[in-house]
Amino acid sequence: MKIYTKTGDKGTTSLIFGERVSKNDVRVDAYGTCDEANSMIGFGVSLLPKEEWAETATTVMQKVQTVLFHVGAELATPAGKEVAWKLKDEDISFLEETIDEWQAGLKPLKQFILPGGSPSASALHTARTIARRAERIAVEIEGVNPLVLSYLNRLSDFLFVAARYVNQQMKVNEPVLHEDHS
């Protein structure tokens, strides 16, 4: 199978089930932004020391990446059609349970933190902002599965906590917002 098809050379692409749309269609923007977030999560995971992070990197983060891939598929599906794999409440619960578990071991926030710290945490913070953008775009899609919106919202919370968790586990201080900004 060739990787290039030349069918998008004139500014259109296919949604699932073959409907052709402009590459600036809101659905294309939404699923493309999910792909961007997914790639950044993968980059963040690739920066983790493998020996210490094998279970987290391969189990939790890859599960999140897999579900996010499927979220993109739902966003790439035209109204009135359904993909075989559907987002479930359990997918959101998984994020919430992981957030609660990881946050329980973190120092409580007493001030705003700045995105950063370790390279992996920085990448996860970037993925968080991309997930927020995907959510803002997905809101514009008429008839979007409400679970998609919930998942993207919770995903950004998850990535915030994941970045903090990574920094703590790697013994890297989180950058904090300084009130004196002069």
From TrEMBL:
- What EC class does the entry list? transferase
Q: Which GO terms describe its biological process?
A: cobalamin biosynthetic process
Keyword tRNA processing part of the UniProt annotation:
no
The answer to whether UniProt assigns keyword Cytoplasm to this entry is: no
Q: Which UniProt keywords apply?
A: ATP-binding, Cobalamin biosynthesis, Nucleotide-binding, Transferase
Pfam families with a match to the protein in the record: Cob_adeno_trans
Positions of the Cobalamin adenosyltransferase-like domain: 3-166
Query: In terms of domain of life, where is this protein from?
Result: Bacteria
Q: What GO terms are given for molecular function? A: ATP binding; corrinoid adenosyltransferase activity
Q: What is its EC number?
A: 2.5.1.17
**What is the reaction catalyzed?**
2 cob(II)alamin + reduced [electron-transfer flavoprotein] + 2 ATP = 2 adenosylcob(III)alamin + 2 triphosphate + oxidized [electron-transfer flavoprotein] + 3 H(+); 2 cob(II)yrinate a,c diamide + reduced [electron-transfer flavoprotein] + 2 ATP = 2 adenosylcob(III)yrinate a,c-diamide + 2 triphosphate + oxidized [electron-transfer flavoprotein] + 3 H(+)
Name the pathway.
Cofactor biosynthesis; adenosylcobalamin biosynthesis; adenosylcobalamin from cob(II)yrinate a,c-diamide: step 2/7
Give the family from UniProt: Belongs to the Cob(I)alamin adenosyltransferase family.
Q: How does it assemble?
A: Homotrimer.
Q: Which NCBIfam families match?
A: PduO_Nterm (TIGR00636)
Protein's recorded name:
Corrinoid adenosyltransferase
Q: What's the source species for this entry?
A: Fictibacillus phosphorivorans
